[in-house]
């Protein structure tokens, strides 16, 4: 047994851009069935496990949605419409829901893994400073990295304004002396860029490649979304 909900509320919670008035009309036009029977009333209570078919399409109830977006440069992590395109503009209609938001921010010029969800509790757990969920970044620097970076970052750097960072894991690429990987356990404003700046270097390209133990799907094209299966969601919180 699932949860009991009004049919109109249930349908609206799963499909963006559909109102309760629309659900009422669909019922009147005999376009919704519940467990094989025509749904006459949109205010009837149904079970979230019921077989609900809207216009021939089975609606599988999910309390929350979790989307992996490979954010391109030039797109902002915001829900507000402004002059720039937002991450929500990249969500295909079949994944779009009311209340979807980016859990955490990447800079406009940063690429990579952004989690979009309507699950405020999970977002809070992932972003809370106490959670220390690791975020992995692939970094291209203006100048070659130096061996000393590893220890300096492992000790916890102090960046501009006297902000103290948690220990971070730096790994220089053996193949390219301007490329490296950095794992942070927090998310201060422009943190990666500010950490390298203190070391006299400059970030020229930044991409987030993992959140917790979940890597960005290497086959997910930049600008595309992928629904994360519920069984995998815990990986976003694990160390
Ligand atoms: N650190 C940065 O400097 N920018 C980001 O977008 C993420 C981490």
Structure description:
Helices cover 17% and strands 30% of the residues. It has 239 residues and is of the alpha+beta class. The chain has 3 domains: 56 residues, RNA-binding S4 domain (Structural Genomics Hypothetical 15.5 Kd Protein In mrcA-pckA Intergenic Region, Chain A, Roll); 74 residues, Alpha-Beta Plaits (2-Layer Sandwich); 77 residues, Alpha-L RNA-binding motif (Alpha-Beta Plaits, 2-Layer Sandwich), CATH 3.30.70.1560. The strands form 5 sheets. Strands 7, 10, 11, 12, 15, 16, 17, 18 and 19 form a 9-stranded mixed sheet that branches. Helix 1 packs across helix 2. The radius of gyration is 22 Å and the shape is elongated. The site of uracil (URA) has 8 residues, from helix 5. Uracil binds next to helix 5.
What's the arrangement of secondary structure elements?
Blueprint: E1 4-6, H1 7-14, H2 20-28, E2 32-34, E3 37-38, E4 45-47, E5 52-54, E6 57-59, E7 66-71, E8 75-76, E9 85-86, E10 101-102, E11 111-117, H3 120-127, E12 135-141, H4 148-154, E13 158-159, E14 163-164, E15 169-172, E16 179-184, H5 191-198, E17 203-211, E18 214-215, E19 225-227
Parallel strand pairs: 8-9, 11-17
Antiparallel strand pairs: 1-4, 2-3, 2-5, 5-6, 7-11, 7-19, 10-11, 12-16, 12-17, 13-14, 15-16, 17-18
The structure holds uracil.
Uracil is lined by residues 106-107, 110, 190-193, 206.
The first-level CATH class of the largest domain is given as Alpha Beta
Strand elements, count: 19
* Bound small molecules, deduplicated: uracil
Number of domains: 3
CATH homologous superfamily grouping of the largest domain: Alpha-L RNA-binding motif
List unreliable stretches of 5+ residues: none
Binned, the helix content reads: 10-25%
**CATH fold group of the largest domain:** Alpha-Beta Plaits
N→C terminal distance: 33 Å
Q: Which structural class do the helices and strands define?
A: alpha+beta
